[in-house]
Amino acid sequence: MNYRPRGIRNNNPGNIRDDGTQWRGVKGNDGAFCVFDTPENGIRAIAKILKSYQSKGIDTIHEIINRWAPPSENNTTAYVCAVAEECGINADKLITSADWPEVIAAIIRHENGQQPYTKDQILTGIGAAA
Fold it and tell me: Residue 9: which of 44, 37, 31, 45 has the closest Cα?
């Protein structure tokens, strides 16, 4: 049996909760999380959220993950460490949109236990968020 995590099945590799935001390509939800028509649209939503965080001064891995996966629901410390280590970026270093491909790939891996998307798919999603 080939197990696919919820985020991969939903084309929502960031496991973005459905809060009513009208994301491009959203087909509904699975009771809690958005279901996107393509992985690229799910990745685009991750990039749009990172862009929103950046505009609010949330621009380090530590700050991003604490907002993305709050300690009230997650082991945020482990999540921050995993993303920082995978990216090779200090968790408190200012990141820019140039770092997003690696950060998004690390978020996807942490959220799903795997990161099955190509660099092109990730870059397409990020590009669509511009």
Answer: 37
In a domain, 126, yes or no: no
H-helix segments, 1-130: 6-9, 39-55, 61-68, 76-87, 100-112, 119-128
Residue 124 lies in a domain: no
Residue 129 lies in a domain: no
Question: What total number of domains does the chain contain?
Answer: 1
Per-residue pLDDT tens over the stretch 40-91:
999 999 999 999 999 999 999 999 999 999 999 999 999 999 999 999 999 9
pTM, two decimals, is 0.96
Bridge partners of 29?
Answer: 34
Integer Cα distance of 49 and 72 in angstroms = 20
Range of the domain at 63: 6-119
3-class DSSP string for 72-89: CCCCHHHHHHHHHHHHCC
127, part of any domain = no
**Residue pair 110/83 in contact by the 8 Å Cβ criterion:** yes
